[in-house]
């Protein structure tokens, strides 16, 4: 018992579990404490644990088809509980060092993944036969790549395991119910996750995180070698290079795995000193700093300032830069890398010593926090009793003594972190003195909020205000600029890190003043969400919005750093991402660095990327609870769901503040149900998926909402099902839809979801658009609908001109395009390729449907009207024109409308 006294005293979870042990089990636990186990020991233990479990061959095929054996799940979880107690006791009794503990945890994970893989492969092979390589004709096996802490043999007591699944050759299985190798290994991967990840009455084995695979959530669970190599060659990003530093084969076909890792090494390590990675590393470092600033993470010893992540960044930054030419740096273990940095004089020996000591201290602290209640956390406890336990477990008499030691280590780490990949920033300006303040500034100084500030915040405000006033006075409209910026300053008083951001970055302050002076929309957005100030730091990114591909990678990498069950944080990240990138587009619009069409493209890409990730998150949450639905052919839906964008989203013409017109479609088996512990019928599953998506988009939070969503264009409108099957959608459109619904279909396209289902929707859309219609009847219906809209939405005062709804406005062009598309698509299938007005007008011109001069005038008018609309939105102005504004463009539209739609 002496050996267990620390664990019993400092880990309530251990004490609780110990009470449940029999005397024999307690003796076995004590006997297991004295020796560290090797990887081979853990592999042997894993085999012993499953020795008496039923084999796959002993299970009837219908039972195999339903999923994994609950007895396997229970045994693995029971084993994990015993081993967790052993590892906590060895750590608390100082019988193992921190590296020994992390290594054993990693060996344990390797062994657990290995037996789960073997069992899963055997089960799926009994159902479908063995996977055979199409090139070699040889049987194929899956390999498992361990990423992150698992890859580096650095798991903590409650780590996720980050995995990537792969296999060498494409092909198909040799059984009676043959499937592709890709589908075979996807089924194997799903069973591995089910064996290890779900929480049951016996707990869990390891939480499995698959988000580091190519394209992340929503992508195929397993990829072949060719697909992996192609992805990293064409699409791999710097953060993925960073992640692959620790990658290793932890289970499965190790020989094939080593061939794969060799082929991927040039992606991770360049064959030269990679100074080109500096900017990416600087951005990663800034992202880490932004997260610390945005969130209250002072109590998080991993993610907070001076935490474990910052030590990891220091080491891995040098590895990425120099690892290509200095091969010893191509190692996974951080404690091996740090001494190499001193040997090569990349860091002083004293720095390496201090960082190593801090790493030991912080990792020990991490383990003892997690040992308290067997929870995945790096946050310091708040309860006094738990604080005392942690302090004693760390070798200190009380919390203040431990807290002081922790603060000292974190201060050291933070200092070195700030010195790595230093960005060139202008020196902070000296505090200026002013004889008199502008009235508005004096009012802020005298306000109750300012008077209640702490000394640090008050000093920062005092430093910032002279700089701000000077910047505004240099502007051509100084009073207007100051009046628009001050509400933002007032909003950030309690978060004075943002005041320092502006003090230390004069260029960011200058950009803030310029943008707010030009656009009250931007000024109000920044005042509501000061977190967006980070976007002002880099002019290169602020005035150059990224491509859709880069947007997707950026958002995915941000979401990957959030626990899967932290829905609130996921929603905040989505909102900050969306608003930050819309701000970039607005800044580019005002600066003139993007033409109109690119502005709408960028706004549309942001929405598409957000929708895809929202779908991914909602899908995985539902699948974790209810399992996967399946199609009529029995294949799993992954996800068997698409989001169709209509209107401005479908037409790639989003503006600032546009809502999203959406329709949800699925292709699940209407008579089926999901395969999880709490099954749902297919319709209910997809209805819940649609509801979760809308909830995630429209819930109002401190960071705002993502988008307003309008679902009224779905079949039968507001009274129809929220999610429709593709067959149901096609039947409704063919038999019941009004002409205006087919008009809307002209601008419909899939913006997120299942690629195969998207192709099916495209076929349905094309068939509907290409129906032969009576042109005269169609023209009458379109004109009548246009008149109804005009009567309802256009200004009653004829002296007012509405940009959209008045005669000659945007809606006239849109209705004209829709009429021409529906009237001529049967003879010109190329019309069905495009959902946007500009390319449709170009198509009408090249096909002779419209005279070239008319098509050109319509395009020019459309661009002019939309450009004016964007600028009015940024100026917070109504979408109205003076009677003589854009008169020639509007008259051209009215003439062409009359000639085409009303004169016949």
UniProtKB/TrEMBL annotation:
Residue ranges of every copy of the Glutamate-ammonia ligase adenylyltransferase repeated domain listed in the record: 54-259, 510-759
Record keywords: ATP-binding, Ligase, Magnesium, Multifunctional enzyme, Nucleotide-binding, Nucleotidyltransferase, Transferase
Alphabetical list of InterPro entries matching this protein: GlnE (IPR023057), GlnE_rpt_dom (IPR005190), NT_sf (IPR043519), PII_UdlTrfase/GS_AdlTrfase (IPR013546)
Domain PII-uridylyltransferase/Glutamine-synthetase adenylyltransferase: 282-420, 786-876
Annotated spans, Adenylyl transferase: 423-904
Catalytic activity: [glutamine synthetase]-O(4)-(5'-adenylyl)-L-tyrosine + phosphate = [glutamine synthetase]-L-tyrosine + ADP; [glutamine synthetase]-L-tyrosine + ATP = [glutamine synthetase]-O(4)-(5'-adenylyl)-L-tyrosine + diphosphate
UniProt-listed Pfam families: GlnD_UR_UTase, GlnE
Cofactor(s) of this protein: Mg(2+)
EC number, as in UniProt: 2.7.7.89, 2.7.7.42
Region of interest (Adenylyl removase), ranges: 1-423
GO molecular function (one): [glutamate-ammonia-ligase] adenylyltransferase activity
Keyword flag DNA damage: no
Claim: Repeat is one of the keywords in the record: no
Record-linked HAMAP family: GlnE
Role played: Involved in the regulation of glutamine synthetase GlnA, a key enzyme in the process to assimilate ammonia. When cellular nitrogen levels are high, the C-terminal adenylyl transferase (AT) inactivates GlnA by covalent transfer of an adenylyl group from ATP to specific tyrosine residue of GlnA, thus reducing its activity. Conversely, when nitrogen levels are low, the N-terminal adenylyl removase (AR) activates GlnA by removing the adenylyl group by phosphorolysis, increasing its activity.
Family stated for the protein in its record: Belongs to the GlnE family.
Protein name: Bifunctional glutamine synthetase adenylyltransferase/adenylyl-removing enzyme
Taxonomic source organism: Paraperlucidibaca wandonensis
Taxonomic placement: Bacteria, Pseudomonadati, Pseudomonadota, Gammaproteobacteria, Moraxellales
């Amino acid at each position: 018992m002496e050996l267990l006294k620390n664990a019993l005293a400092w880990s309530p979870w251990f004490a609780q579990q110990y009470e449940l042990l029999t005397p024999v089990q307690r003796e076995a636990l004590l006997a297991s404490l004295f020796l560290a186990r090797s990887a081979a020991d853990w592999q042997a233990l894993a085999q012993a644990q499953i020795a008496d479990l039923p084999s796959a061959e002993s299970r009837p095929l219908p039972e195999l088809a339903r999923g994994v054996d609950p007895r396997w799940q229970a045994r693995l979880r029971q084993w994990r509980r015993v081993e967790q107690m052993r590892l906590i006791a060895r750590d608390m009794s100082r019988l193992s060092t921190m590296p020994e503990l992390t290594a054993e945890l990693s060996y344990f994970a390797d062994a657990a993944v290995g037996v789960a893989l073997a069992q899963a492969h055997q089960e799926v092979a009994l159902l479908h036969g063995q996977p055979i390589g199409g090139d070699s004709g040889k049987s194929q096996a899956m390999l498992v790549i361990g990423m992150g802490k698992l890859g580096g043999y650095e798991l903590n007591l409650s780590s996720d395991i980050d995995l990537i699944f792969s296999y060498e050759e494409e092909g198909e299985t040799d059984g009676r119910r043959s499937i592709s190798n890709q589908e075979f290994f996807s089924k194997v991967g799903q069973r591995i996750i089910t064996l290890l990840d779900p929480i049951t009455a016996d707990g869990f084995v390891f939480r499995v995180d698959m988000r580091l695979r190519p394209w992340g959530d929503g992508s195929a669970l397993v990829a072949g070698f060719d697909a992996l190599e192609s992805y990293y060659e064409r699409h791999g990003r710097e953060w993925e290079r960073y992640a692959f530093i620790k990658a290793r084969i932890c289970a499965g076909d190790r020989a094939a795995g080593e061939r794969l890792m060799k082929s991927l090494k040039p992606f991770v390590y360049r064959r030269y000193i990679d100074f080109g990675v500096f900017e990416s590393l600087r951005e990663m470092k800034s992202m880490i700093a932004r997260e610390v600033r945005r969130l209250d993470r002072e109590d998080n010893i991993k993610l907070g300032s001076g935490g474990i992540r910052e030590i990891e960044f220091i080491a891995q930054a040098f590895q990425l830069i120099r690892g290509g030419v200095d091969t010893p740096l191509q190692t996974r273990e951080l404690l091996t890398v740090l001494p190499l940095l001193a040997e090569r004089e990349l860091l002083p020996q004293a720095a390496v010593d201090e960082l190593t000591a801090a790493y030991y201290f912080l990792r020990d602290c991490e383990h003892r926090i997690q040992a308290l209640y067997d929870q995945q956390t790096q946050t310091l406890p708040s309860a006094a009793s738990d604080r005392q336990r942690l302090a004693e477990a760390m070798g200190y008499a009380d919390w203040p003594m431990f807290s002081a030691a922790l603060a000292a280590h974190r201060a050291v780490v933070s200092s070195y972190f700030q010195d790595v990949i230093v960005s060139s920033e202008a020196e902070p300006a000296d505090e200026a003195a002013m004889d008199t303040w502008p009235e508005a500034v004096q009012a802020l100084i005298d306000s109750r909020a300012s008077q209640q500030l702490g000394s640090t915040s008050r000093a920062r405000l005092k430093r910032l205000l002279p700089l701000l006033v000077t910047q505004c006075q240099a502007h051509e409209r100084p009073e207007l600029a100051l009046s628009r910026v001050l509400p933002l300053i007032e909003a950030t008083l309690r978060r004075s890190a943002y005041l320092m951001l502006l003090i230390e970055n004069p260029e960011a302050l200058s950009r803030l003043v310029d943008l707010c002076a030009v656009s009250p929309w931007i000024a109000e957005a920044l005042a509501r969400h000061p977190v967006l100030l980070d976007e002002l730091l880099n002019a290169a990114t602020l005035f150059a919005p990224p491509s859709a591909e880069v947007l997707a990678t950026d958002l995915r990498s941000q979401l990957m750093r959030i626990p899967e069950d932290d829905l609130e944080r996921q929603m905040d990240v989505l909102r900050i991402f969306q608003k930050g990138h819309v701000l970039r587009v607005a800044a580019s619009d005002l600066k003139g660095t993007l033409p109109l069409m690119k502005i709408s493209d960028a706004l549309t890409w942001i929405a598409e990327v957000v929708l895809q990730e929202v779908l991914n998150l909602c899908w995985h949450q539902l699948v974790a609870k209810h399992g996967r639905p399946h199609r009529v052919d029995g294949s799993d839906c992954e996800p068997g769901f698409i989001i169709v964008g209509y209107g401005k989203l479908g037409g790639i013409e989003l503006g600032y503040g546009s809502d999203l017109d959406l329709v949800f479609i699925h292709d699940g088996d209407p008579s089926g149900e999901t395969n999880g512990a709490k099954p749902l019928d297919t319709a209910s599953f997809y209805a819940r998926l649609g509801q979760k998506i809308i909830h995630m988009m429209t819930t109002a939070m401190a960071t705002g909402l993502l988008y307003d969503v309008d679902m009224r264009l779905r079949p039968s409108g507001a009274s129809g099902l929220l999610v429709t099957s593709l067959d149901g959608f096609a039947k409704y459109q063919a038999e019941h839809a009004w002409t205006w619904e087919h008009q809307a279909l002209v601008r419909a396209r899939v913006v997120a979801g299942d690629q195969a289902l998207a192709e099916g929707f495209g076929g349905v859309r094309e068939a509907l658009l290409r129906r032969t219609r009576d042109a005269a009847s169609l023209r009458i219906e379109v004109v009548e609908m246009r008149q109804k809209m005009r009567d309802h939405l256009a200004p009653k005062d004829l002296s007012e001109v509405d940009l959209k709804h008045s005669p000659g406005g945007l809606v006239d062009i849109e209705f004209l395009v829709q009429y021409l598309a529906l009237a001529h698509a049967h003879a010109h299938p190329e019309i069905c390729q495009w959902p946007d007005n500009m390319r449709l007008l170009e198509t009408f011109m090249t096909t002779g449907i419209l005279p070239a001069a008319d098509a050109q005038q319509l395009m020019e008018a459309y661009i002019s009207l939309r450009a004016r609309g964007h600028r009015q939105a940024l100026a917070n102005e109504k979408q109205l024109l003076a009677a003589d504004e854009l008169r020639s463009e509007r008259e051209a539209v009215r003439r062409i409308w009359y000639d085409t739609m009303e004169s016949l």
